[in-house]
Design goal:
Elements: H1 3-9, E1 13-24, E2 27-38, E3 42-47, H2 53-60, E4 68-73, E5 76-77, H3 83-92, E6 93-96, H4 108-118, H5 123-136, H6 152-164, E7 170-174, H7 182-199, E8 202-207, H8 210-216, E9 219-224, E10 227-233, H9 234-239, H10 244-251, E11 266-273, H11 283-290, E12 295-304, E13 307-317, H12 322-329, E14 335-338
Parallel strand pairs: 3-8, 3-9, 6-7, 7-8
Antiparallel strand pairs: 1-2, 1-4, 4-5, 9-10, 11-13, 11-14, 12-13
Helix pairs in contact: 4-5, 4-6, 5-6, 6-7
């Protein structure tokens, strides 16, 4: 168990969704959603288009109300908020968007300052907060630039700074990297990770990109047709996805490959490392345990939350007792599959 998971299990959930349903006329967008998101956590929500991700996010900041169930922040049902309490909620829960939503006629600094102006914050405090955020997102030298003069990654940095300027407790990210190139995506993910670490900010992120979940989140929930079909620590979901949708989404990261041609006299095994036993794949151990004639055909191992995840396909000289060889292989991997 990771250090983070030990901490959050001992804490009270900052955000709870209990029996959430959402209908638009005859269409049921969400059904029976139960989630707990802890303070300081980066929680990912992933699913295919139409799975209900955006509908779920709009319930958390009260842009919409659930048809049934409760959304609780710090134990308070936000459905009953109105007036001043609803205004305070909008300051507590900030949001960044896929398409930045910057004002073209305002500079970087002015875009960041806008929520402070609308909140009636005095000029001196506005200046101080804007300067802090410019430095945090690395745009100090671009304070007087206009959105048209910025790259996509820089525009998203402005969006993040603007979302943080009122010092929220929760940051919602709606496909925040979908419009960015891979290099800009990695830069934004690093920034969000740094913000989470420095400020202890809870981040709820929706995406259709498994790579974003892998690189940033502590836990993940998989949505399909408005229901949570799988959830857990990222390493656990990536290491052994149980639901068909999770497997399909993971296959998009290039985890599957065709079985290569092998000698008919060879035994073909696939060793799976799911993180359950925190095993480390070691070629020297494989050779020592399975024999000198071992050939590595294909494989891919990645490290997520400190655990090695992936699979190795091996060809071994055929033996009279293959089951004994497979039993030895099971000492080295979480699961062993005989391919032929």
């Amino acid at each position: 168990m990771t250090r983070f998971s030990q901490e959050i299990l001992a804490s009270t959930a900052q955000l709870q969704l209990r029996g959430i349903g959402k209908r638009y006329g005859a269409l049921s967008a969400l059904k029976g959603i139960d989630l707990q998101i802890h303070r300081g956590e980066i929680f990912g929500i992933i699913g295919r288009s139409g799975a209900g991700k955006s509908s779920l996010l709009r319930l958390i900041n009260r842009l919409e109300n659930p048809s049934e169930g409760q959304v609780l922040i710090d134990g308070r049902d936000i459905a009953i908020f109105d007036g001043a309490r609803l205004h305070a909620l909008r300051r507590q829960v900030a949001m960044i968007f896929q398409h930045f939503n910057l004002m073209a006629t305002r500079t970087v600094a002015e875009n960041i300052e806008l929520p402070l102006l609308m909140a009636g914050v005095p000029h001196t405090e506005r200046t101080r907060r804007v300067e802090e955020l410019l430095q945090l997102v690395g745009l100090g030298e671009r304070r007087n630039a206009y959105p048209a003069q910025l790259s996509g990654g820089q525009k998203q940095r402005v969006g993040i700074a603007r979302a943080l300027v009122l010092q929220p407790d929760i940051l919602l990210c709606d496909e925040a990297t979908s419009a960015l190139d891979p290099e800009s995506t990695q830069t934004i993910l690093e920034l969000l990770r740094d913000i989470n670490h420095r400020l202890g900010l809870t981040i709820v992120l929706i995406t259709h990109e498994m790579e974003v979940i892998r690189d940033l989140c502590h836990r993940v929930a998989v949505l399909e047709r408005g229901q949570v079909v799988e959830q857990g620590e990222v390493w656990r979901v990536f290491g052994g996805p149980r639901h068909e949708v999770s497997q399909i989404l993971l296959n998009g990261t290039g985890r599957t490959c065709a079985v290569p041609d092998t000698n008919s006299q060879e035994l073909l095994l696939e060793l799976h490392f799911t993180g359950e036993r925190a095993l480390e794949p070691d070629l020297a151990d494989l050779v020592a345990t399975l024999g000198q004639g071992l050939r590595l055909l294909q494989g891919g191992i990645e490290r997520i939350q400190g655990r090695a995840l992936g699979r190795l396909r091996l060809a071994l000289p055929y033996v009279d007792d293959p089951e004994a060889l497979i039993a030895r292989a099971r000492q080295l991997a979480d699961r062993v599959e005989r391919l032929h």
